[in-house]
Amino acid sequence: MKRHFYLVAGWASLGLGAIGAFLPLLPTVPFVILAAFCFANSSPRLEAWLLNHPHFGHHIVAWREKGAISRKGKVAATVAFAASIVLAAILSPWPWVMVPVIAAAVTGSWIWTRPEG
């Protein structure tokens, strides 16, 4: 039962990561890293496929070994946060406009403290 849960969660995470490749505000790599974690607990074959993937494999390995996020990933996250803040400023009333500002400040601060792989 636990294996099946991880397998479904892995495929769902991979699906969200695939959607994130086309939607600018949805991150791709964190979902792929989550999928690798889920597949590690359910399907060694799928985990190996992700670890050897030419686009995502090095991100997964860097995260597992050092907790590292690439400079490009940090910049992309910062740009996505900025776009979210601008969108909220246009569409949201006060005080809801502050939600993405606070989320960006907290999450962005954490992202920029991670080592670069």
Automatic annotation (TrEMBL):
Residues spanning the membrane: 73-91
Keywords: Membrane, Transmembrane, Transmembrane helix
Pfam family, one: DUF454
InterPro entries for this protein: DUF454 (IPR007401)
UniProt-listed PANTHER family: INNER MEMBRANE PROTEIN YBAN
Name of the molecule in the record: YbaN family protein
Species this protein is from: Sphingopyxis soli
Lineage: Bacteria, Pseudomonadati, Pseudomonadota, Alphaproteobacteria, Sphingomonadales
